[in-house]
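wait is this the right file?? whatever heres the structure
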């Protein structure tokens, strides 16, 4: 897909809607690999120079998401990628797998998630 002003607006709207549903603050969005490389190395850590390979990458430390719009083939894939990356922000402890994929599907269907709360440690 080619990133133009209309597509950028659509993406910003979708991110706003899904961020509200997932009870997370809207992340900062990056649309070009140059923007990723311009960020400090401490933030982009393990996925700096390989980011161009993926549809999207989440950088937890800075509440930032890179969407590789040029690599994404269509709008359905774009929406799936947005939800996928925002699920990473909402459930930072969860790795890819069955549960993660189920949450992505639920997010695409419109499910709302309550804000993230850390569990209390039980004293021994």
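ok assuming it is, sequence goes like this
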């Amino acid at each position: 897909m080619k990133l133009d002003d209309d597509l950028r607006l659509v993406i910003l709207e979708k991110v706003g809607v899904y961020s509200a549903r997932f009870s997370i603050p809207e992340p900062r969005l990056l649309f070009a690999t140059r923007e990723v490389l311009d960020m400090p190395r401490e933030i982009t850590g393990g996925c700096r120079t390989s980011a161009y390979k993926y549809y999207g990458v989440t950088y937890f430390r800075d509440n930032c998401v890179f969407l590789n719009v040029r690599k994404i083939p269509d709008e359905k894939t774009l929406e799936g990628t947005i939800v996928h990356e925002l699920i990473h922000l909402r459930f930072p402890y969860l790795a890819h797998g069955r549960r993660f994929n189920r949450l992505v599907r639920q997010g695409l269907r419109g499910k709302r998630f309550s804000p993230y709360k850390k569990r209390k440690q039980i004293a021994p």
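The two ends are 55 Å apart (CA to CA). so i think its the right one actually
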